[in-house]
Q: What sequence folds into this?
């Protein structure tokens, strides 16, 4: 197959609309990584409301808390986030069930991953 190379500047007018169309498609669809870890709106709102309750109910706090959940979503898939929320809720249980959720290594690794994501969110957003 023979390729032809255009000199600099040749054919630029036809390339610009294609480039603009590609950029528009990316902005509408988002990046594949962002789509992969997209959290349901309800979960994002729940996080932001809890964060605001803990840090003050102001517009600035809402912006910081929204940023925070976005950073966490960059680090953890929604499935992992849900699992960690379950583990953290179950750790308060009495008896053997609570002990299992407080001591099982895999669960603690997930909790640690959330704590690391939250630390990054604190650095970037607060």
A:
């Amino acid at each position: 197959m023979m390729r032809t190379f255009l000199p600099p500047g040749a054919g630029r007018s036809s390339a610009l609309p294609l480039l603009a169309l590609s950029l528009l498609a990316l902005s509408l669809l988002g990046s594949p990584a962002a789509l992969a870890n997209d959290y349901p709106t309800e979960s994002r709102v729940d996080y932001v409301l809890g964060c605001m309750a803990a840090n003050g109910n102001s517009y600035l706090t809402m912006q910081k808390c929204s940023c925070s959940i976005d950073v966490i979503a960059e680090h953890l898939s929604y499935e992992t986030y849900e699992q960690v929320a379950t583990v953290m809720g179950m750790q308060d249980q009495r008896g053997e069930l609570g002990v299992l959720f407080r001591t099982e290594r895999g669960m603690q690794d997930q909790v640690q991953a959330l704590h690391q994501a939250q630390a990054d969110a604190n650095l970037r957003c607060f």
